[in-house]
Design a protein that fits this description.
The protein has 157 residues and is mostly helical. The chain is built from five helices and no strands. α4 runs antiparallel to α5. The longest helix has 27 residues.
């Protein structure tokens, strides 16, 4: 399956996120409260009940983005890819608000991680997913004139 660069980027980000959650599942951190505050700015338990569904969801999302990027998976892959794009775009927009100090302590580890890692990665991933979705529109044909099997169009007149 051929995967576009934007599709590969978005799928890689999602798989990396899944692997990080899997790592936290296999090797629990010494201070889950500190990790939770650094990653989410709220206390959330890093238990199997929370992490395992995230690993599965992120892996499925990566697979769907890769499939949609390669022209496979049909409307299901495109729908999941759209949901992924909406999710990372919303997270990126919230990250911009938090970057300006709205609702977060600007001296916290979360603020620095949000400013330099989470928000830029989310916005870049949203852009990549948008490119994948535009290219994955049904019926979109990119054939040059004279190619065998090319659809007739303006160039044939």
């Amino acid at each position: 399956m051929n995967i576009s660069r934007p599709g590969a980027f978005a799928a890689a980000v999602l798989l990396l996120d899944a692997l990080v959650h899997l790592f936290w599942l296999i090797r629990p951190v010494a201070d889950p409260r500190a990790l939770s505050l650094a990653v989410l700015d709220v206390e959330v338990p890093f238990t199997a009940r929370v992490l395992l569904p995230l690993v599965l969801l992120l892996s499925l999302a990566a697979l769907s983005v890769a499939a949609a990027s390669g022209g496979r998976g049909g409307w299901v892959a495109r729908a999941v890819t759209l949901a992924v794009g909406a999710g990372v775009l919303v997270r990126g927009e919230l990250g911009l608000a938090w970057a300006f100090g709205l609702g977060t302590d600007t001296a916290s580890a979360f603020h620095r991680l949000n400013l330099f890692l989470y928000t830029p990665v989310c916005l870049a991933t949203a852009l990549a997913v948008g490119v994948v979705l535009v290219r994955a529109r049904p019926g979109l044909v990119r054939a040059r004139p004279g190619l065998v099997g090319a659809r007739p169009g303006r160039h044939d007149r």
